[in-house]
Specification:
Layout: E1 2-4, E2 11-13, H1 16-29, E3 35-42, E4 48-53, E5 62-64, E6 67-69, H2 75-83, E7 92-101, H3 109-120, E8 130-137, E9 141-148, E10 156-158
Parallel strand pairs: 2-4, 7-8
Antiparallel strand pairs: 1-2, 3-4, 3-7, 5-6, 8-9, 9-10
């Protein structure tokens, strides 16, 4: 799955394997929300984020029918290991994902506020975090949306590019 902003300035690659993993986690959490972080890298022009890992939510995360609060247990050490990699493809914190059970894959006001706070917080080392939201259910069908949150700017929606002729 490849998604791009309308101006093709921002893109995201979510492999079939990672999409399947997200949907499995959503199905397993039904009827509660779930989520976690996204890890990956940027291509050389830095316009395309490639997701390489969707780690399990930290064990201190809180979940309910209409809320998910991602915990932090073990996350700092995990991210420090990523940032200190010396060779090969460097992986980074790219943003967050979560599930809106039986709902549209649209960010809530709380989601928006959280992502803006992450974009502004230098500690995340991620001035343009991604938010991937999964909506729906196994029975009713799934939808996935993605947005980039830029410091001091509106969120940028990422969509599937039109088919080429």
């Amino acid at each position: 799955m490849e998604l791009w902003s309308q101006d093709r300035r921002f893109g995201l690659v979510l492999s079939a394997e990672h999409r399947r993993l997200l949907l499995e986690r959503c199905s397993a959490s039904w009827p509660n929300e779930t989520g976690g972080i996204l890890v990956g890298y940027y291509t050389e022009p830095r316009d395309l984020a490639v997701i390489t890992q969707v780690p399990e939510a930290p064990s201190d995360s809180k979940s309910g029918r209409a809320r998910f609060v991602r915990g932090s247990r073990g996350l700092e050490d995990f991210l420090k290991r990523l940032w200190s990699q010396k060779a090969g493809v460097r992986e980074y914190y790219l943003g967050e994902w979560h599930y809106h059970p039986g709902q549209a894959a649209e960010p809530s006001a709380q989601d928006e506020a959280q992502m803006r706070a992450i974009a502004e917080d230098a500690g995340y080392r991620c001035p343009e975090p991604l938010l991937v939201i999964v909506g729906g259910s196994l029975a009713g069908g799934w939808s996935i949306t993605a947005r980039v949150y830029r410091r001091g700017s509106e969120a940028v929606l990422l969509v599937s590019p039109p088919a080429r002729r």
